[in-house]
Design a protein that fits this description.
Elements lengths: L3 E5 L6 H13 L5 E5 L13 H12 L5 E3 L2 H5 L5 H12 L5 E6 H4 L8 H4 L3 E6 L11 H5 L3 E4 L9 H9 L10 H9 L6
Parallel strand pairs: 1-2, 1-4, 2-3, 4-5, 5-6
Helix pairs in contact: 2-9
Length: about 200
Amino acid sequence: MELCLFQGTFNPIHNAHLRAAEYLVNNFGIDKIIFIPAYEPPHKQCDKSLSTHRYNMVKLAIKNNPHFQISDIEYRLNGKSYTYITICELIKEFKPEKRIKFIIGTDAFRQIESWYETDKLKDLIEFLVFKRDKVFDPEEFDKLKMKGYKFTIMPLDFEDISSTELRKAVKSNMPLKKFVPKEVEEYIREHELYNN
């Protein structure tokens, strides 16, 4: 079985996340993408009280796509959501025959050498890297290739969805259609999220 994972804070999940995942299904023949909301991301400050809400919003955003599913593995593991630990658990569970494909943005991929157990992680994963910058030079990642990181830069145009902008829109009670799916907007409004 081939696994493709999309792990992230998803605070909240937004249209650019979904567009990247749909792009892989439509253009790279990836049949199943498992979304893994981080319970407690190690590289980001994240309000713990939003953990369950973030999970619920991912579930709502992907429910109508048969190629997408959600995993609560990082909620079951509890504590800091280290990718290496999550990957090891998923390998035990699914026993994949190939490297696990892993969706990541250029912003996070630049920090990959600072990730927990990165030298072990790089032998388990093929990174599918999406542009998170208006101006992008793929050669900046050549040094990672030399160090044994296996990755492919995805030929999808950059799309910026700023969580700061989204929060401003929530506070101003503006429509969120350009940021998130309808179900996620309804959830944000119902639970009065991102109002502070």
